[in-house]
Amino acid sequence: MPILRQIAQLGQPVLRGVAEKIADPEAPAVQTLIDDMLVTMADADGVGIAAPQVFEPLSLFIVASRPNQRYPGAPEMVPTAMINPEILWASDEKEPGWEGCLSIPGLRGLVLRSRKIGVRYQTRTGAAREVEYADFLARVFQHEFDHVQGVVFIDRVESTRELMTEKEYIRSLQSHA
Ligand code: ZN
Question: Which of 28, 40, 47, 49 sits at a 20 to 30 Å CA gap from 7?
């Protein structure tokens, strides 16, 4: 049975290290970790989670976009484990978007990200995949990719004036609806 893992909060050194490559995606410990990350992410209502966020400094994250309370506009996508991810290219065209993070609860920040990216990763069965993502999925991938490099979204906010509390963020969405 998968178990809920504790989510590392900003200040934990594990969030600031560069994650290690996974030699064998099919190793039982990796499979267990993926299953635990899936339930931990779902329980926290996240659209992505990276292994360092559950205290495992490994190059692995899950992207699981779906509309939810924290991101009402998110597209639907089957939760996908991405192992040893790489960004092959990123569009010069960038777009600002409000991001949050399970490791930095209650805060949103405006982050500029490439609108389109080409990526490579291994699946949980070890298969190599090359995929292109745009818009929200490109944003989630870049956010999670940052985690395996020891970077968090507030590092990319241009000014502290581009931060807001999650409560105010949700309020602003409702007032524009
Ligand atoms: Zn995050």
Answer: 28
Active site residue 144: yes
Segment 119-151, tens digit of pLDDT: 999 999 999 999 999 989 999 999 999 999 999
Kindly give the pairing relationship between strand 94-99 and strand 80-90. unpaired
Which of 130, 132, 144, 166 is flagged as catalytic? 144
Residue 121 is classified by DSSP as: E
Tokens representing 96 are: 């600002």
User: How many A from CA of 29 to the centre of ligand 1?
Assistant: 22
Q: pLDDT tens digits, residue range 4-19?
A: 999 999 999 999 999 9
Cα–ligand 1 centroid distance for 175 (angstroms)? 26
172 CA from centroid of ligand 1 (Å): 21
